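Notebook entry, structure prediction.
Reason for the run: the old model in the group folder had no record of what sequence produced it. Starting over properly, with the input documented here first.
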Amino acid sequence: MSRYDWGWGKSRPRRPADGIKAQTQSGRFGKTWWAGLWIAALERLVDSARLSRGRSYARSGQVVKLEVGRGGVSAKVQGSRPSPYKVSIQFKALSDAEWERVADAIAAQAIYAAKLLSGEMPETIEDAFKAAGASLFPTARLDLETTCSCPDWANPCKHVAAVHYLLGERFDADPFLIFEMRGKSKEEIIAALRTRRAGGLPATDEATHDERADEVEITEPLCASPETFWTLPAEVKEMRMNFVAPPMDALLVKRLGKPPFWRGQRDFGELMERAYKIIGRHARRTAIGDR
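New structure, fully documented this time:
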């Protein structure tokens, strides 16, 4: 066995034809803050030399298989030997009781639920997990168990690092993968949040329909004095206006997702969010200027 097989030198890996190449070909991995936290957790555990090789492996397509499931990741990474090495990253799952407390804490904050339902990770989400006595991101070595079939004595090795970096890019696109690795799928989390936001009732179309059926619609008659129809009530002058920017732009659009008619190359949600920001900024400037 060559000394290079044990990580003591710079062995040259075989280049697979169908490897998974990282989108990040230069600079730091992780566009979003939550993916950045995931990468930071890795970089606390791995020495700089193996991190550098791991980034190189991720960018050149040495990872030939990457599957994310409940509780962990299964991957294969092509090294210098004919057969790819088997890599496993297991996340410590939260208990059912911990998830119940986490769901209660998230549902108690409307902005948490709104951002998660639109596919974004609230920046203070860890507060909800801390309130439940748990954590979303790995904070200790025991939160993350990594294995690799390569002969390198270090754990995590460069092959684990390559998978970890690619996983960070997956988190950029779908923050719910972090939750899934902790033991809950996106569907389960959304269902739990909707149930709690609805006051304990399942948020189904049938339940909403039944609740509306019990309501009696009251139609207000036209003003008794037609000459005052186009005038504002005196109370309006005493109303306090709020021109603070919303915590989230284009929330409804994001919750509805991409419309079936959209054929553009750019992300529809991002375009609408930008439009909402511009319109909202102009509206606030106009309103404040007219005061």
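Summary: Residues 82 and 201 are 56 Å apart (CA to CA).
The old model has been moved to the deprecated folder.
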